[in-house]
TrEMBL record:
The lineage of its organism: Bacteria, Pseudomonadati, Bacteroidota, Sphingobacteriia, Sphingobacteriales. It comes from Sphingobacterium spiritivorum ATCC 33861. Residues 11-123 form the Activator of Hsp90 ATPase homologue 1/2-like C-terminal domain. Belongs to the AHA1 family. This is Activator of Hsp90 ATPase homologue 1/2-like C-terminal domain-containing protein. It comes from the Bacteria.
Length: 145
């Protein structure tokens, strides 16, 4: 396992960036880079709840919202995969405890978004290609008036 870190400076408030990242419609825009039609499903977006990150085919992963401090921080603990809309618990010890963390640091009129992603080594190249593209798309959405 390896932890990858990405950051981008955005001309927007943490609140606007949070809305860009986690509003259902905005989420579909910036995550389209990973898989066209990506979306998430959750009963209530709050700490302690489980969230499903899905493709239209019903594949993806499910995670626990481990910690949420609006609008500055959210941590997802990835629990397993989703196949055909069904949760498949992770039994692979190599997975360990995989987290995905989003931090927002305001600096005057700008905010730095830092994302830390735990991944298996074989996915590093793909993540390094797509995550910067996804964050650039999030920046474009957040900077719209």
């Amino acid at each position: 396992m390896t932890t990858l870190t990405y950051s981008i400076e955005i001309n927007a408030t943490p609140e606007k960036i949070w809305q860009t990242l986690w509003d259902q419609e905005n989420y579909k825009v910036w995550t389209n880079v990973f898989s066209q039609g990506s979306y998430y499903k959750i009963s209530d977006f709050k700490e302690g709840n489980t969230i499903h990150f899905l493709t239209p085919r019903g594949d993806g992963m499910y995670s626990l919202i481990n910690k949420l401090e609006y609008p500055d921080y959210i941590s997802f603990q990835h629990l397993g995969e989703i196949v055909n809309f069904e949760e498949v618990p992770n039994h692979d010890p190599e997975w360990g405890e995989l987290y995905e963390i989003y931090e927002l640091h305001p600096q005057g009129q700008k905010t730095t978004l830092i994302v830390k992603v735990d991944t298996l080594t074989e996915y590093t190249e793909s993540m390094n290609k797509t995550f910067p593209q996804a964050l650039q798309k999030a920046k474009e959405v957040a900077e719209q008036p």
